[in-house]
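Consider the tokenized backbone below.
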């Protein structure tokens, strides 16, 4: 089947350039979804709109059902790659602000690779049997998209898969290689918004107020001890204060301050320990400062743990080695970033595997995801992502004769 990869390369590259130039923010992926819908329908898939995402179902006789998921959204980042097809788009975000938009995480690669795999599977139905579910998800960057699809009845609208797959373009391994491992491969994560309340005053009269800036600084300092002193040295945990905002003028003590926190762990109990420590420390510091009212603590953008099933991962790894060769299949060290992919297989109650594939060639300096300079090499990145998707799907759906075609 993959001998036909060259037939899809030209339109994949053209589509990739267009998607990269026309990125859309989370839960606003209308044009991307329309393009995905059009392509899947032209391949012969039954197409459904679910929770802002698109699902294509291709039934091809008896056999397992395999779901492959790709995410579609971009980020509020101003592109600085210097690419001839760099994004110059600005859009209005959910808060009404005008922001630049860029595919700074490679979701354009994911969409194009998944469409290429869907096309190849549709063109070579004689080589496999079963059902392929091609799922294109909105809102991964805000942890809203997978939940949106599930809440819109995904489980009842599509065939129940036997297994689910997802992938992500990364700075490691090298371009042309894939990396996979069993167990936790992406951290569980969450954001926390903390608002503390002081009592405003003139900057020359601090004794008449309760200073939320000093209070916020105390909270930031104390939070730095949580991972160092409350988490076992062998456990992974990150607690970051990404924002502390308060006040408008040098001589005004403000009424309140807002802190934005981010936490990561490879274990849900560790994540819960971090959350409990945040609550305890924030309340204690507010009490110590004599705040006029209790703090507000809000958990948002929560991401589940991505924990690859051992048996599924072993089967996918064997298929990768068979197709790519051992020298192009690497071990995926746990990544500290988070994903909402596992919300979908968890909703169905099925096992899954998630892997990474390289986006940077030897002559490129790797630039991390979410950076304004993130620019994976178009090839062999698109080809590798497409091949990996098809190879994993065929590990369940392929007939014995498929190996001879390779």
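A designed sequence for it:
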């Amino acid at each position: 089947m993959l001998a036909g990869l060259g037939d899809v390369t030209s339109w994949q590259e053209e589509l990739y350039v267009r998607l990269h130039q026309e990125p859309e923010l989370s839960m606003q992926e209308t044009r991307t979804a329309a393009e995905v819908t059009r392509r899947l329908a032209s391949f012969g898939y039954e197409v459904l709109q679910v929770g802002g995402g698109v699902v294509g179902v291709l039934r091809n006789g008896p056999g397992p059902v395999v779901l492959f998921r790709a995410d579609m959204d971009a980020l509020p980042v101003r592109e600085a790659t210097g690419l001839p097809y760099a994004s110059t788009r600005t859009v209005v975000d959910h808060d009404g602000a005008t922001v630049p938009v860029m595919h700074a995480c490679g979701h354009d690669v994911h969409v194009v690779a998944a469409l290429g795999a869907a096309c190849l599977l549709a063109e070579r139905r004689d080589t496999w049997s079963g059902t392929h579910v091609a799922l294109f998800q909105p809102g991964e960057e805000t942890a809203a998209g997978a939940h949106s699809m599930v809440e819109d009845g995904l489980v009842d609208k599509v065939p129940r898969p036997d297994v689910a797959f997802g992938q992500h373009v990364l700075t490691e391994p090298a371009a042309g290689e894939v990396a996979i491992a069993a167990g936790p491969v992406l951290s569980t994560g969450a954001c926390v918004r903390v608002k503390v309340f002081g009592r405003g005053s003139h900057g020359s009269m601090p004794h008449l107020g309760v200073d939320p800036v000093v209070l916020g600084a105390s909270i930031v300092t104390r939070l730095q001890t949580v991972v160092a002193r409350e988490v076992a040295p062998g456990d992974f945990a990150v607690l970051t204060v990404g924002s502390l905002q308060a006040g408008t003028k040098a001589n005004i003590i403000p009424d309140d301050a807002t802190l934005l926190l981010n936490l990561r762990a490879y274990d849900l109990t560790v994540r819960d320990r971090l959350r409990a420590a945040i609550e305890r420390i924030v309340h204690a510091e507010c009490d110590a400062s004599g705040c006029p009212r209790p703090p507000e603590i809000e958990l948002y953008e929560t991401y589940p743990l991505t924990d690859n099933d051992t048996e599924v991962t072993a089967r996918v790894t064997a298929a990768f080695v068979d197709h790519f060769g051992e020298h192009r299949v690497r071990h995926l060290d746990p990544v500290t970033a988070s994903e909402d992919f596992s919300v979908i297989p968890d909703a169905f109650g099925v096992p899954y595997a998630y892997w990474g594939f390289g986006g940077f060639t030897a002559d490129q300096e790797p630039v991390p995801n979410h950076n304004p300079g993130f620019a994976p090499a178009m090839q062999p990145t698109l080809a590798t992502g497409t091949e990996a998707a098809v190879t994993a799907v065929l590990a369940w759906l392929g007939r014995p004769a498929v190996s001879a075609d390779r």
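The first strand starts at residue 46 and ends at 50.
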